[in-house]
């Protein structure tokens, strides 16, 4: 076991587990390495991207240790996946089709048109997207960007847009921006409504604070990790609303397939009929994906996901020579593409259908996750392995989608929260010393799952118990070393890191001024409502009208019983008079209610005109909580 602040060495139990795992893998299939190298043109040297102040926002070279034989602290399947994903640079996918890989969590694809280049999914950060575009231009000339396509509403597919184009060029119509219907609503909602909690947990998921070493961050399964640069958003100028919709950008014909509710609430695949090329967004990659991502999200629909993949096969597969996605490397050849899509489809369908079968026999999510085994054909296929998702947590997510958090056992209906439960478990077992002894015995026997469960109760009952935290950290290390899923590994090792070194907070941010600027008025009021401290606002009753000048619309916001509600005020409205009326633009509304701008300063600057009592708004803002990006996870 480790010495408190040092990571634990892999135990004999862990090494045995990893050797057994290696024997079960389809090691003879090395096709992915040839495909990942195919079309390589040039890499970024050094593989480092910095921001305007010289701070590093991406460092692919820091993963240079991922080479050669798999160490005894990494699952061999995850090691192989990382070796494929650290390949970075510019790749030719097909004539006129290029990809930037290894410069962020996601890929950026560039499609040459008649006069310039269309950018698909401009990464997370403006800095990495700009570096990728410059690398492309070094090889293909200084082609202007003539279009942007967002495949879906996650930040790694739009955040770098201002690194490849400008608001001015988009507003002038020189650069159309296409996205699936509902894109802005879902992109903003995910990053604003629950953004603080998701970002904190994403730090665990992507291993943000972990050392870059064989005992630290290996990858996130979908990509190496996330960049930490400037996130931006330019709203779409053209919505894709239906399957079969055809658009022409810079002379390039594109046919779209809507896939809402799959990997994202707003997502689409699309086909290039004149090039026999298919973009699968993030609906088919080289991993089993998440039905519910560990950072948190709305549960996805595995049934719909599999159905849309069947539709992709039906619509496009027999006419496709190359298929590429927003992560990983492409697939070439009609037969190969068809089988890839079919196996991906079968994976989500099997997980969904078998979970439903078993829950209808009375099994709970946690039981089904232990029972369910994937078919041999899927086990022997690399791209259906759980590097990003996992069979275990995907099954539980499917159960949650249909049945919710409650498993039906009344003993689980009103359980004590972690601290109170921890105190009672420690007492029932016989005290801290007895529990520690039992946990050490579980550790020595290789039952790390039981060890961390026991120790979790003790840590929450007594967060100052140094021995409990040290032993739980060691057990987390072993579980991390044994994880095929990159996200599971990162969660375990991040938990161990915080137990040893303390809370590392949220190193990355997904919000930005341009993200906030995309909020609708409804979303601004909703975001404010989610911050109301209910008990502090119980006795407040406030009614304010907001005249949003650039929308020529008046909104009424009323706070009562700790609830902030809002609605549009119709022209013939005969309700009670407001306490105050504020006349302002949508951007000023965003700044005051969602951006923390001082109300008095905005009024003095002439940004807000007030009729009535302006102090009423101060009483509202006084009961809005500030989210905490540094909340604890492995300790109370």
SSE inventory with pairings:
Elements: H1 12-23, H2 31-37, E1 40-42, E2 48-50, E3 56-59, H3 76-85, E4 89-94, E5 97-101, E6 108-112, E7 117-120, H4 126-140, E8 145-149, H5 167-171, E9 177-180, H6 183-192, H7 195-205, E10 238-240, E11 246-249, E12 252-258, E13 268-272, E14 277-279, H8 302-316, E15 322-324, E16 331-332, H9 334-359, H10 365-371, H11 376-379, H12 391-403, H13 418-429, H14 432-444, H15 448-461, H16 466-481, H17 486-501, H18 513-517, H19 521-529, H20 534-537, E17 542-548, E18 553-560, E19 563-568, E20 580-584, H21 586-593, H22 599-604, E21 609-612, H23 615-621
Parallel strand pairs: 7-8, 8-9, 9-10, 14-15, 17-20
Antiparallel strand pairs: 1-4, 2-3, 4-5, 5-6, 6-7, 11-12, 12-13, 13-14, 15-16, 17-18, 18-19, 20-21
Describe this structure in words.
The protein is of the alpha+beta class and about 625 residues long. It contains 23 helices and 21 strands. It has an 8-stranded mixed beta sheet with strand order 1-4-5-6-7-8-9-10, with helices on one face. A 6-stranded mixed beta sheet has the order 11-12-13-14-15-16. Strands 19-18-17-20-21 form a 5-stranded mixed beta sheet. A hairpin with a 4-residue loop joins strand 6 and strand 7. The chain is globular and about 75 Å long. The mean pLDDT is about 95.
